[in-house]
Request: fold
Amino acid sequence: MFQNIDPKTLPENVFSLIGDRWMLVTAGTPVHCNTMTASWGGLGVLWNKPMATIYVRPQRYTFQFLEESDRFTLSFFSPQWRKQLAHCGAVSGREEDKFAACGFHVADAPYVQEADLVLVCKKRYWNDLDPAHMDPEALEHYQAQDYHRMYLGEITQVLRRV
Reply:
């Protein structure tokens, strides 16, 4: 069971939440969606609204769902789900139903019902990262020149497991 909370009341350290614990980025509809594990992103304020920033490479299957959707969700889990999150980052949804393989269930937004924390986001902006604006250290992440697309989403709902 989830409770709606104000984004300003999140007690977690967002650097640890995203970078250490990871998250699932999910987009599409409850009937046809995909999810992927991410550890790059951010939370903050833009245009006087709580926002989430995610980065997705164009070859990821979730990319097409993000392109076709006007919203996405970020799901955060307790450590017991680490193996499933690793699986969702290593296997493409083109090849298998990752939800079924991990024992996950999809809820309305769509998001993963087994999560402890879910951010529902309305897509407000996107842009491709431009290598002309990257320093050499950042370019090391793009040997294949497959630059991420950045998505900014207004956080419209925060769900915390109770």
Helices lie at 14-20, 61-68, 82-90, 98-102, 136-139.
